[in-house]
Amino acid sequence: MLNPLLMLDPRKPPLTPRNTLDDAALLILRLAVGGLLVIHGFQGLGDPAHRIALSRGFGVPFPEVASWLSILGEIGTSLAVVAGLLTRLSAVLMTILMTTTWLTSSLGKPLIGGGEPGLTHENSLFFATGALVLFITGAGRLSLDARFEAWARSQT
């Protein structure tokens, strides 16, 4: 029987302090990665001309199309990751987007230093790494993915 409070799958291990902390950690990671990237996406939405100019400066082909795909991709994948909805798909798309962004903007530039103090161009790497972890692990039990999975199993 499914737990009506969280709709947890009874075939998975019962909630214990350890796996509850694991699920809480995945929720925190989803909120950090998705929450910060959605802000970045809305910043691009507020000034798309700036994003297009950056893309043009980096030599990106079709900078208008690429910029809009980037902005919409950042917002869409971020909202899905925060909600824990289609998390693995959203996370792999976010990983590809952020890796492409890093390669486009940072290829050939030093990660540390290079005329600027400290790390440079690390934001894209942070988002790509966090998204990769979520692709590997999934969203955890504190997500819409888990609820929909439990609901689907209860219907069979």
From TrEMBL:
<feature type="transmembrane region" description="Helical">
    <location>
        <begin position="21"/>
        <end position="45"/>
    </location>
</feature>
<dbReference type="InterPro" id="IPR051907">
    <property type="entry name" value="DoxX-like_oxidoreductase"/>
</dbReference>
<feature type="transmembrane region" description="Helical">
    <location>
        <begin position="124"/>
        <end position="144"/>
    </location>
</feature>
<protein>
    <submittedName>
        <fullName>DoxX family protein</fullName>
    </submittedName>
</protein>
<keyword id="KW-1003">Cell membrane</keyword>
<comment type="similarity">
    <text>Belongs to the DoxX family.</text>
</comment>
<dbReference type="InterPro" id="IPR032808">
    <property type="entry name" value="DoxX"/>
</dbReference>
<keyword id="KW-1133">Transmembrane helix</keyword>
<dbReference type="Pfam" id="PF07681">
    <property type="entry name" value="DoxX"/>
</dbReference>
<keyword id="KW-0472">Membrane</keyword>
<keyword id="KW-0812">Transmembrane</keyword>
